[in-house]
């Protein structure tokens, strides 16, 4: 069964800003200890659903959110680590109400599979630690600045939700948007 999640994607302008952040991060000595997320897969997960056999009920539940209102996602202030130190990310704020509407709509239709109801933590993943190693998170250099703390502030209008199927296998995961819902009224 495929792994499924509901996400929003950053605008092209925000992706360009993130490309600059990624270039700085990838120039650090620790960069080879991370698997970098490809820019075309950058997204903010609103609801992870786990393995799902039937996508039609999820699409129907999400369709009830059409026209419910756009939001603004704000990235920043800088890249950093999620708790546990294995995921390098940029925090994202402003999406809690949208994530709550998605969760409530899926719950109302009993569409959230067991184990697929993780709490929302607004972030956009840039990279993950390779294997079991945890990259050095201590400050480096004469300035005392941390290699992983790169300023990044941007915002984008969230006018659409995406139901995404993630397929794991050899190489990086493959993401396919299987359903879209327009939020703007």
List the helices and strands and how they pair.
Blueprint: E1 3-8, H1 12-26, E2 34-36, E3 44-51, H2 56-63, E4 71-75, E5 80-81, E6 87-93, H3 96-108, E7 123-129, E8 154-158, E9 160-167, E10 174-182
Antiparallel strand pairs: 1-3, 1-9, 2-7, 4-6, 4-8, 5-6, 6-7, 9-10
Tell me what you see in this structure:
By secondary structure, the protein is an alpha+beta fold. The chain has one domain: Cyclic Phosphodiesterase, Chain: A. The chain is about 20% helix and about 30% strand. It has 3 helices and 10 strands. The protein has helices spanning about 10-25, 55-65, 95-110; strands spanning about 5-10, 35, 45-50, 70-75, 80, 85-95, 125-130, 155-160, 160-165, 175-180. Strands 2, 4, 5, 6, 7 and 8 form a 6-stranded antiparallel β-sheet that branches. A hairpin with a 5-residue loop joins β5 and β6 (about 85-95). It is globular, with a radius of gyration of 17 Å. The mean pLDDT is about 90. GO terms for molecular function: ligase activity. It is an enzyme of class 3 (hydrolase). Keywords: Hydrolase, Ligase. It comes from Aciditerrimonas ferrireducens. Its EC number is 3.1.4.58.
